[in-house]
Design brief:
alpha+beta; five-stranded antiparallel beta sheet; 15 helices; 20% strand
């Protein structure tokens, strides 16, 4: 399977695999470690909260327990309770003074204790003294109260009464209270005089819980050792399953942390048992609550991981492309070599094995091309020898003699214009075929241009005006052969040839110094003919160095030929500038290095 996949895809798949696998493993390990750490911290925090709540409850209940003992130290209270003990018939009301004394005593005991909802001192005959309302005259049968048996069993010790209503002496009050109660016995005789009940508001638990940050969706319960539920808060799951589990935990489990599963959901359960009050604070925290942050972390990790994997994938695509692209180019060049096109080379951009392979391929194709060219060169030289033999049979002097004969005949006929044209043509021919080098001095080039212009002036007459303006010293500088004639020809035929009034051609040369210290020769051919639009001039400029510019006319081909010739001979510093406008004529400026000597290998060496 892998053998059929190309190298680019192999690199891409390998890169993505090496990125995604370690990133995924790291994400999984990080998620599990963070989940475990979060659960451990939350559990420790809950343990501290349950301990602190239980200690706060112990302090509150200890204060209420001490408060329940104060009647035993007040002789007036004991005297009133003795007077209305169980031996007194039910229904005998204490006097107003007695009720007033008891009201003031109870109100003073409850003063400043916001958690106390009310204090009841129930006399033996059932009359209820309370601080809730001084005008309240109520009797009750202590035996009928649902929690009185529990108080009696304590036999004078304090006891906790689970949440209940106060309907026995405050009709219509639907609020629940939990109470601290004890039997009041006469000191010395231990005779039962009555009962004191301190009713505490259920807000006590809420106020305590406000001081501690508990899990938002956790549940907190306060239970007694006898399975009485004193308080519950938080999001309690519906139905009896959790209440049944709560009773099981309350009866069988001591202090500690337990894992419970209720209806398929896992809970962390923390139990704190108070040795003083016998109350147990039990916290249930759903595992999903503990893992909320980790779930957010998991989602964030997945999103970030996806972004990183996407970015890494793009980077892998880029790297795979960059690594494999030279090999693809090398493969394409090798296919071309197989078809017989040996002049192939690939760019070498690196120094690694791929770069070395590319250099080896380039050397191989160069050697193959050299060997093939040696075979072809032998045949070409044989053909050139045959051609040279044929050309040597054509004597240039025959052409010159013929032109001289025409010149003599024209002079005999007194046709001096024809004589001048033939003489000028002969000069042009001698200049064209008589010079073997690539460059000539500017003086010779200008002489050839003068001969050409002489022929054209005979044709156009006074409509063609010519002016030469060469700076002294420029005549001996080297220029490419036949450089100016195409520019002059363009100026005549495209610039002023069709103008009825004709025009003037200006040919000038000058030398200027560059900032770098070099000398440059400027040769300008300018006419005042019809010119060209800015758009055509811009297209002409852009076509000068294009390999095959589309849609060029003769004028564009001639200029392109000049621009590329001077660039090949003199390098990138040589330029052809085109300026002009519509109706204002054209100016063509050639800028080449100012050189006075030309080496035999066709390279300029001095100026």
């Amino acid at each position: 399977m892998l053998a059929k996949i190309n190298l680019r895809w192999k690199l891409l798949l390998l890169s993505i695999f090496m990125i995604t696998v370690p990133l995924s493993l790291q994400g999984i390990v990080t998620y599990r470690e963070f989940s475990s750490s979060t659960e451990r911290r939350a559990t420790e925090h809950t343990v501290q909260i349950t301990e602190q709540i239980n200690r706060s409850l112990d302090r509150t209940l200890a204060e209420m327990q001490r408060l329940s003992l104060t009647p035993l130290y007040d002789l007036n209270v004991l005297a009133i309770l003795k007077k209305y003990s169980a031996q007194v018939d039910t229904g005998v009301l204490p006097t107003t003074e007695e009720r007033e004394k008891m009201f003031l005593y109870i109100s003073g005991a409850a003063y400043g204790r916001q958690e106390v909802g009310g204090i009841q001192i129930i006399a033996g005959n059932g009359f209820i003294f309370t601080n809730v309302d001084s005008t309240l005259l109520r009797f009750t049968d202590m035996e009928s109260l649902p929690w009185s048996g529990k108080v009696r069993e304590a036999d004078g010790a304090w006891t906790l009464i689970p949440p209940h209503t106060l309907a026995h002496y405050i009709p219509g009050d639907a609020n629940e209270y939990f109470s601290v109660a004890r039997m009041i016995r006469e000191p010395g005789s231990n005779r039962q005089l009555g009962m004191i009940v301190i009713d505490l508001k259920m807000d006590v638990f809420g106020d305590m819980l406000k001081n501690y940050q508990f899990e938002e969706n956790g549940s907190l319960f306060v239970m007694s050792g006898s399975d009485d539920l004193f308080y519950q808060s938080g999001e309690v799951p519906p139905g009896p399953p959790i209440l049944g589990d709560l009773r099981s935990v309350g009866m069988s489990n001591g202090n500690g942390v337990y894992e419970r599963t209720i209806e398929g959901e896992r809970y962390i359960t923390v139990v704190d048992d108070s040795a003083y009050s016998g109350l147990k604070v039990i916290a249930y925290i759903p595992e999903r609550v503990l893992l909320q942050d980790t779930i957010r972390l998991q989602r964030f990790t997945i999103v970030i991981g996806a972004v990183f994997v996407a970015a890494a994938g793009l980077l892998a695509v880029f790297l795979a492309y960059r690594i494999s692209q030279p090999l693809v180019q090398l493969k394409q060049k090798m296919l071309l070599v197989e078809t017989g096109s040996f002049r192939q080379s690939v760019p070498v951009e690196t120094q690694d094995e791929i770069g070395q392979l590319a250099r080896g391929f380039n050397r191989m194709t160069e050697e193959i091309n050299r060997l093939v060219n040696e075979v072809y060169e032998v045949e070409i030289r044989e053909k050139e020898a045959e051609l040279a033999h044929l050309q040597s049979q054509i004597n240039p002097h025959f052409i010159y003699n013929t032109l001289e004969s025409i010149n003599m005949m024209a002079m005999k006929k007194d046709n001096y214009e024809v004589s001048d044209m033939v003489t000028a043509l002969g000069g042009i021919l001698r200049y064209s075929v008589g010079q073997s080098g690539r460059t000539v001095v500017l003086e010779e080039e200008l002489a050839s241009v003068r001969a050409y212009l002489k022929i054209q002036q005979l044709r156009y007459g006074e409509r063609l005006r010519v002016r030469f303006d060469s700076e002294p010293g420029t005549e001996r500088l080297q220029v490419p052969k036949l450089l100016l004639q195409p520019l002059v020809e363009n100026a005549i035929f495209h610039g002023i040839g069709d103008a009825e009034e004709g025009g003037e051609i200006w040919i000038g040369s000058t030398v200027f110094e560059e900032d770098e210290g070099g000398r440059m020769l400027l040769i300008t051919v300018r006419d005042d003919g019809v010119g060209m639009s800015d758009e055509r001039i811009e297209r002409l400029r852009e076509s000068l160095y294009d390999p095959e510019p589309p849609g060029l006319q003769r004028r564009g081909l001639a200029l392109r030929n000049i621009a590329q010739r001077i660039r090949l001979l003199f390098g990138p510093t040589a330029e052809l500038h085109i300026d002009g406008g519509d109706g204002t004529g054209m100016a063509f400026t050639i800028m080449i290095p100012a050189m006075e000597r030309w080496r035999t290998d066709d390279q300029i060496v001095a100026g």
